[in-house]
Amino acid sequence: MNQPNDTDREVVISIRGLRNQFGSQVVHDNLDLDIYRGEIIGIVGGSGTGKSVLLRTIAGLNRPKAGSVEVLGIDVLNAHQDGRADAGVNWGVMFQDGALFSSLTVRENVEVPMRTVDGLDPQLRRALADLKISMAGLPYFAGDKYPSELSGGMRKRAGLARALALDPQIVFLDEPTAGLDPIGAADFDQLILGLSRSLGLTVFLVTHDLDTLHAICDRIAVLAEKRVLVTGTMQDMLTVDHPWVHEYFHGVRARAALDTKAAASGPTKD
Ligand SMILES: Nc1ncnc2c1ncn2[C@@H]1O[C@H](COP(=O)(O)OP(=O)(O)OP(=O)(O)O)[C@@H](O)[C@H]1O
């Protein structure tokens, strides 16, 4: 279910024939996926279908058994060290709980990736970290706080600030709205949408959150049967004849998410 102009779009992540296996458990088998520049793609699938493993594989944190993963033209599985480093600075990862270093302040956490940049003046590094902290929607004083002093939502924003540290072209977000209240989740969605549109960021978003899919995702990729079963818009998903996909996009929670979206769009004209 490709969009009509998919062939004209720049592919920034290309996955072919991916196989991930742990012991006898095959998680992905012959998985293919293309991701386009500037899009927000939501990765959905039942529990254990390998959404996080896919994220980790693309980000070079998990070595697959077979297949190819190209990010921004670099073969990340076989790139020599320099090539891998080049690709690495072009993406940032935000894990579910922010995965911050507890012994460092938020600012110091955001500065960690920046320390890989040779010759960066410490004062400038600090100022850049403060910029990322405010881009992630945190108040100015958050930079001096330790992760334990922040709410869960603020920790996620701090994790996002760190993912943005090196001005990446792609960000990987693992269930960014999990554990947030509905208002906090909606705010986070809008933050991601704003960053993607203003910076041209490509966003790879693992989520279970139907509101997020409705609110900000340009495309959705469904993981099932060890591969990407289908990709397309939310509208496309409603027509997919597969038991899990049908239940997910037509179930009670899906209807509630549709109602939320309709309410957010305001009254329709007759
Ligand atoms: N390092 C690992 N070693 C062994 N098994 C693993 C490893 N990483 C993931 N798995 C297994 O791979 C499967 C897919 O895991 P993954 O975390 O990607 O699922 P998921 O789709 O993100 O699930 P959920 O929606 O519940 O978060 C699971 O059965 C998990 O136990």
TrEMBL record:
One Pfam family, short name: ABC_tran
Molecular function, one GO term: ATP binding
Keywords, alphabetical: ATP-binding, Nucleotide-binding, Transport
Gene3D superfamilies: P-loop containing nucleotide triphosphate hydrolases
Signal peptide: none
ABC transporter domain segment(s): 13-250
InterPro entries to which the protein is assigned, alphabetical: AAA+_ATPase (IPR003593), ABC_transporter-like_ATP-bd (IPR003439), ABC_transporter-like_CS (IPR017871), P-loop_NTPase (IPR027417)
Protein name according to UniProt: ABC transporter ATP-binding protein
